[in-house]
Amino acid sequence: MTIHIYNTLTGKKERLEPLEPNHVKLYVCGITSYDFCHIGHARSALAFDMIVKYLRYRNYKVTYVRNFTDIDDKIINRAAEQNTSSFELADRFIHEFYTDMDRLGIDRPDMEPKATEHIQEMVQIISELIDKGMAYQAGNDVYYAVETFSEYGKLSRRNLEDMQAGARISVNEMKRNPMDFVLWKGSKPGEPKWDSPWGEGRPGWHIECSAMSRKYLGNTFDIHGGGKDLIFPHHENEIAQSEGANGCSFVKTWIHHGFVTIRDEKMSKSLNNFLTIRDLLEHYHPEILRFFVFSTHYRNPLDFSELAMQDATAGLERLYAAIAAVDALTTDGRSDSDSVITDKDRQQMLSIEERFQKAMDNDFNSAQAQSVLFDAAKSINRILQGLPPEPASDDLVFLHATRDLVKKLAAIMGLLEEDAQTFLDAQKQKMLSAIDMDEVTIDNLIEERRLARSTKNWARSDEIRDELLAHNIELKDGPEGTSWTVKRTS
RNA sequence: GGCGGCGUAGCCAAGUGGCCAAGGCAGUGGUCUGCAAAACCAUUAUUCAGCGGUUCGACUCCGCUCGCCGCCUCCA
């Protein structure tokens, strides 16, 4: 089996064939650091985190580069508003970015270059483009001449005529063609600036990715990723710059993930409907966010809602509950007990990893892969159900092995990484803090009910249970006594 | 206006032409239980927005219609 990936450039799913055997070189556009990250940024980071983890699980060596845009108009403007320098502002939000990413359990890329540390490399590429007649200086700016790149528009499937018909292009008399884009911007007084052959200034947005990907991954590399909104103009312009300067193919496979939406609309600052990662983590465990994100294929829109998060919570708790139940088993069974595990169960367990891989090989279909985890949890629960008080040691070995496999596969999505019982207890505490009940009161009532039950005083027993239920506490009588959970409302 | 995508059960969501259209949440019946809860078993779309076409056969391919969304300006 081989991995197939949807390539935006060709519009097809293609077999992954790294240019260098077994070594995938990946470049992802990171954030512009001028504000806290929202859940759209989280989706991007999570999607590529999952992709990299899966490729490594499949024994590929991965070189993963993700940049920081730490100089740009938004940063300069925001810094001016806050009476700070663009450097300090960018640094601060890079720091905040790491805080969020760490909480989400996202692995650091292998390299995280910053634009401001690669000005020379950018100047170099711009010079090459000017030498080739593909870029020109106009005033203090340097522009890319899109007409010199015959394939301009190949990624976003549009042509220069159509785009100009769109007529949403700002008029700039310096440009030879309205679609020409800036490579180097002359600086205005007070703005951050670097020396260049064209005077003091700063780089345009797109050039940093061409310069940094070339430096760290070479002229041609395997995969370049980002959000769908980067297809045009950002990635289109990167192709024009890199292929123009290098004279060879830039990227083999382009991966673009879908947006996070709220009420089916894209989150955006202008609509003021965005949620920051830390806002969300106030209310939900990071793995719940991960579960939610991976419950939809990465290219489809992901609609955020409280209900969706509750569904994700219920789903993740179900998986953790199955793991916790196996964790709670003793490890030494009886060698002379009969096995309760059927051949069908064994077969299903053997197929779990294969089915998981089949789903993930198909353009990283994490939604389908999750369903395999649920099937495994169901099998575990079914076996547990039929387990005698003194289970066969072979059956215990089987259950522990199944649990370990489920955890190994879930880890590719960053799920089930916590101790299961600890996770469930923490969720219970979180629910408890939202209602007007404390543990001591609950325990006292459970004890009173235990006494009532021991005398078969069912009336009082049920009264206590109903009273607790009125406070959303649900009781569960088991062989080892009574436990409780906080019932989910709404 | 140009380009791209989506429309699958009450909700969410997979489905790379052909065994009964995954899985989750919710619901219903049963097992278990003093009664419950959890779990398990069963059940819940003769049908995949609508209409045509290609095919022995389409949710899957093609065309048209309707509805929704995105990009074309900064954006994950």
Q: What labels would you give this structure?
A:
490 residues, alpha/beta, Rossmann fold, Four Helix Bundle (Hemerythrin (Met), subunit A), 3 domains, four-stranded parallel beta sheet, four-stranded antiparallel beta sheet, 16 helices, 15 strands, RNA-binding
Short description:
The protein has helices at 39-57, 73-81, 86-103, 119-131, 160-166, 207-217, 231-246, 277-283, 286-294, 306-327, 343-361, 366-385, 393-410, 420-433, 439-454, 458-470; strands at residues 4-7, 12-15, 23-28, 61-66, 135-138, 141-144, 181-186, 201-203, 221-227, 251-257, 260-262, 265-266, 302-304, 473-478, 481-486.
Tell me about this structure.
With 490 residues, this protein is of the alpha/beta class. It folds into 3 domains: 4-277, HUPs (Rossmann fold); 284-424, Four Helix Bundle (Hemerythrin (Met), subunit A), CATH 1.20.120.640; 435-486, no CATH class. It has helices spanning 39-57, 73-81, 86-103, 119-131, 160-166, 207-217, 231-246, 277-283, 286-294, 306-327, 343-361, 366-385, 393-410, 420-433, 439-454, 458-470; strands at 4-7, 12-15, 23-28, 61-66, 135-138, 141-144, 181-186, 201-203, 221-227, 251-257, 260-262, 265-266, 302-304, 473-478, 481-486. The strands form 5 sheets. It has a 4-stranded parallel beta sheet with strand order 4-3-9-10, with helices on both faces. The longest helix is centred in the middle third of the chain and has 22 residues, at 306-327. The chain is elongated, with a radius of gyration of 28 Å. The relative contact order is 0.10. The model has no long low-confidence stretch (mean pLDDT 93). The structure holds one RNA strand of 76 nucleotides.
